[in-house]
Design brief:
The chain is mostly helical. Helices cover 67% and strands 3% of the residues. It has a single domain, classed as Four Helix Bundle (Hemerythrin (Met), subunit A) (Up-down Bundle), CATH 1.20.120.1630. Strands 1-2 form a two-stranded antiparallel ribbon. The longest helix is centred in the last third of the chain and has 29 residues. The protein is elongated, with a radius of gyration of 17 Å. The chain starts with a helix and ends in a 14-residue tail after the last helix. Its main location: membrane. One of its GO terms (cellular component) is membrane. It comes from Robertmurraya kyonggiensis. It is a multi-pass membrane protein.
């Protein structure tokens, strides 16, 4: 089961990269501005190393499926539904990079009605759920902590760009949404 899940996730990520590149070209063609380039490479490295660590921990330490596997699988499926919901809600604005279209529409539908950064919440959950499904506890802890470090840089950069280049602050000023936020300004 482990191999099938990893193959599924890798294929999913490749499809997402295709979508992201297509959306990036469209947004930049419309005048989109990319920010946060300095940390993006570290985020990519983090995600690649996550899979390497997961594979190594499972195979080297001969990890097996968790006894909580059925519950964790339901959690994984929910995150995948959430991931699709995020991508569909953002449409051409969805990307793995921070690209903001000045004065572009601020997305206020789908999970964005409830959460500031639902995609990051989903990734945080995945970085816990996937390794826990196969008792890869070291990978779960290490990459959760590393992801917190990356998000503590990425979320403020994204919030700043959205506040400065769009009507993000105005659109959501009266609507309370669940965090994550690493900035007191937002």
């Amino acid at each position: 089961m482990f191999t099938w899940l990893i193959v599924f996730i890798i294929l999913q990520r490749l499809v997402e990269l295709f979508i992201a590149r297509k959306n990036e070209a469209w947004m930049k063609g419309q005048g989109g501005i990319e920010v946060g380039q300095s940390h993006y490479q570290y985020m990519v490295i983090l995600h690649i190393c996550f899979f390497i660590s997961l594979l190594l921990e499972v195979f080297i330490f001969n990890r097996t499926s968790s006894s909580a596997w059925p519950i964790l699988l339901i959690g994984f499926i929910i995150t995948q539904v959430g991931r699709v919901w995020v991508i569909l809600s953002l449409g051409k604005y969805w990307n793995t990079k921070i690209i903001v279209l000045p004065q572009g529409n601020v997305v206020k539908k789908g999970p964005y009605r409830f959460l500031k950064h639902p995609n990051y919440v989903i990734v945080c959950l995945e970085l816990l759920i996937i390794p826990l499904m196969f008792e890869a506890y070291l990978t779960a802890v290490l990459f959760t902590l590393l992801n917190i470090v990356i998000l503590s840089i990425r979320i403020p950069a994204e919030e700043k760009a959205l506040l400065e280049l769009t009507k993000y602050g105005e659109v959501f000023s009266k609507q309370k949404r669940f965090l994550p936020s690493f900035s007191k300004r937002v």
